[in-house]
Amino acid sequence: MQEQENIKEREIKLDWKRWLNYQSLVKQVPFFLFLTVLAVIYIYNGHYADKTIRNINRTAKEVKELQWEYKTVKSEVMFQSKQSELVKAVEPLGLKELTEAPVVLNDESNGKREK
Fold this sequence. Notes:
mainly alpha
């Protein structure tokens, strides 16, 4: 009984030698190549993800800057479009604000009146 156990233990100990012989290694080459390809794809995917994240962050920063610029320009336009600011802007051109009501001109040569 003990001899059979010793024989099984020897077989188990010698079993790893079967995996290291030339023929078994040659049989495993495609699997090792497959694992290598998977490792390369994994590394590429990691680099691609990092690059994509950097691009997203850069684009988000540009969007924030453009939003800030938009708000600044919008506030400037709103300020400059006030009546008092418009009067100041056109004063050098010789234009002045009307102090009287506008005059309505009627064209009676056609015989029609426009309302």
